[in-house]
Design goal:
206 residues, alpha/beta, 11 strands
Length: 206
């Protein structure tokens, strides 16, 4: 299986920025982690993303109209190159934790809501996670330990690709997923895949 490049966006709030076409060019698919519209307009935004690549999206807290209820599920579990990828809007919530519990083990969680880019690993990689006896654990054992704790191994928030708010910049990301288990490789977010726009406010406010 080839290495996949997955476009990650969130919190567009009813706006599609054509500047996203360049960083998302060539991705195999796009995952949108919610707040697609802004009390409406989700369908139009999704149409733009779908013109770039097949797009899967979930419902956010401002996707509260009838169109969004029809188009957007609360969460989606995907299998991409063998990795179990959970897409939802708010990870740190009762609903988010419940979704992880239902779908675990989860390798990657893609989430949004905070408008701030983040990548969080739930385990120390390269076999350095201590075992109960204090000796280094194998990567597979470390991954199992992480899944038993948080229920996920990697959580990525691509930030907000819509109007800037809260004095935060705008961003999107590209996640690189090698085939699971290939040559011992782990999940790796592509660091060069972060698109940031801290100058243009795109009709936003502070």
């Amino acid at each position: 299986m080839p290495v996949l490049r997955i476009g990650l966006v969130a919190d567009t709030h009813g706006v599609f920025d054509p500047a996203l076409e360049s960083p998302l060019a060539g991705v195999s698919s796009i995952l949108h982690a919610g707040d697609v519209g802004n009390h409406g307009g989700a369908g139009g935004v999704l149409a733009h993303f779908t013109s770039i690549a097949p797009t899967t999206a979930v419902r956010g807290n401002v996707d509260d109209d009838a169109e969004a209820a029809e188009l957007l599920p609360e969460n989606v579990l995907l299998t991409l190159n063998g990795w179990r990828v959970l897409l939802l809007h708010i990870l740190d919530s009762a609903a988010g934790r419940a979704a992880v519990a239902v779908h675990r083990p989860v390798d990657v969680v893609i989430h949004g809501h905070s408008h701030s880019y983040s990548v969080v690993h739930s385990v120390i990689h390269h076999g350095n996670a201590p075992t109960a006896a204090g000796s280094p654990a194998a990567p597979a054992a470390a991954a199992a330990s992480a899944a038993a704790g948080t229920g996920w191994r990697l959580a990525v928030n691509p930030g907000s690709a819509g109007p800037a708010r809260f004095s935060l910049g705008r961003s999107a990301a590209v996640l690189t997923l090698p085939p699971k288990g290939a040559a011992g490789r782990d999940v790796e977010p592509c660091s060069c895949g972060l698109w940031e726009d801290r100058a243009q406010r795109l009709g936003g406010g502070s």
